[in-house]
């Protein structure tokens, strides 16, 4: 059985580790957090072991960096030189480049992942970028592990990870924001808040499921709901006249620029 040690057990790491555990991945888990609380909680859920200090780091097959990007330097100063040199270091940190991780930790094999929070419900998207040193069999095993509880996309260049961060990483927030606006408007128009919230959740879920299961693209699916001069048509005309496409494109560009900035400064 392969072993994984996670440095940090926050929302994202927990979603990934629980996802792996729920799909009965052949993995043992060692968990570390400075305050211990979240490591102890997660260890209880996934039958893991808590690492109490970083004085010594056990030899594992995979190490997962799961702290915030701004906490990486402090973590690296404590673990540099203590990791199994043959292990693959998996980083879920937004913006921290493979070169930075290699440099700070003195390692070569790195898998940079951009996950997203729907991993919590077994419906995550994980974008992968491997450093050259990760072998074909290691790549295959890691893709298989993460594919068990999410959809994995492997990218060949690191810049693509910065590009997709604003789509799959941030994407759930766009959907939640759109949902919030719809719920608020329903409430303003006199619909009860609970009903509004349930209806929006089911509408978003239903549209996603239809999109996933249909052979048609989003344009056709949209047209199927839109009769000329009908209700949906009127709403979409407002999206067009207010140039919603340009607004979304600008938002994506801003996310990409921030992603590149973080990569540069990390
Ligand atoms: N949330 C998202 O949607 C999302 C999406 C994509 C990528 N990410 C990436 O995922 C990473 C974690 O995000 P999160 O939302 O899970 O953060 P979080 O909930 O704040 O969790 C951070 C974890 O790191 C631990 N930590 C803090 N300092 C540490 C140190 N020096 N050494 C080791 N562990 C340390 C914390 O320990 P304590 O429990 O003791 O405080 C905590 O368990 C970030 O780098 C982020 O860029 C997040």
UniProtKB/TrEMBL annotation:
Its main location: cytoplasm. Residues 8-95 form the Pyrroline-5-carboxylate reductase catalytic N-terminal domain. One of its GO terms (cellular component) is cytoplasm. Its EC number is 1.5.1.2. GO terms for molecular function: pyrroline-5-carboxylate reductase activity. Residues 158-262 form the Pyrroline-5-carboxylate reductase dimerisation domain. Pfam families: F420_oxidored, P5CR_dimer. Belongs to the pyrroline-5-carboxylate reductase family. InterPro entries: 6-PGluconate_DH-like_C_sf, NAD(P)-bd_dom_sf, P5C_Rdtase_cat_N, P5CR-like_CS, P5CR_dimer, Pyrroline-COOH_reductase. Keywords: Amino-acid biosynthesis, Cytoplasm, NADP, Oxidoreductase, Proline biosynthesis. It catalyses: L-proline + NAD(+) = (S)-1-pyrroline-5-carboxylate + NADH + 2 H(+); L-proline + NADP(+) = (S)-1-pyrroline-5-carboxylate + NADPH + 2 H(+). One of its GO terms (biological process) is L-proline biosynthetic process. The keyword NAD does not apply. Catalyzes the reduction of 1-pyrroline-5-carboxylate (PCA) to L-proline. Pathway: Amino-acid biosynthesis; L-proline biosynthesis; L-proline from L-glutamate 5-semialdehyde: step 1/1. It is found in: Cytoplasm. This is Pyrroline-5-carboxylate reductase.
């Amino acid at each position: 059985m392969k072993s994984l040690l996670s440095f940090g057990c926050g929302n994202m790491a927990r979603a990934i580790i629980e996802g792996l555990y729920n799909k009965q991945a052949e993995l043992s888990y060692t968990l570390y957090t400075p305050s211990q609380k979240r490591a102890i909680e997660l260890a209880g859920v996934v039958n893991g072991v808590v690492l109490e200090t970083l004085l010594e780091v056990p030899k594992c097959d995979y190490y997962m960096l799961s702290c915030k990007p701004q906490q990486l330097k402090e973590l690296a100063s404590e673990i540099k030189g203590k990791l199994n040199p043959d292990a693959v270091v998996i980083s879920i940190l937004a913006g921290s480049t493979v070169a930075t991780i290699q440099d700070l930790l003195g390692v070569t094999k790195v898998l940079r992942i951009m996950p997203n929070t729907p991993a919590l419900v077994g419906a995550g998207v994980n974008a992968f970028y491997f450093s050259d040193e990760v072998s074909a069999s290691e790549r295959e095993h890691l893709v298989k592990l993460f594919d068990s509880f999410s959809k994995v996309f492997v990218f060949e260049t690191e810049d693509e990870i910065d590009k997709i961060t604003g789509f799959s990483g941030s994407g759930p927030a766009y959907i939640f924001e759109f949902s919030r606006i719809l719920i608020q408007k329903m409430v303003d128009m006199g619909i009860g808040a609970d009903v509004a919230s349930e209806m929006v959740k089911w509408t978003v879920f239903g549209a996603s499921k239809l999109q996933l299961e249909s052979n048609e693209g989003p344009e056709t699916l949209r047209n199927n709901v839109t009769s000329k001069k009908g209700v949906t048509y009127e709403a979409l005309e407002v999206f067009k006249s207010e140039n919603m496409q340009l607004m979304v494109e600008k938002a994506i560009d801003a996310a990409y620029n921030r992603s590149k900035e973080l990569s540069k400064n990390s």
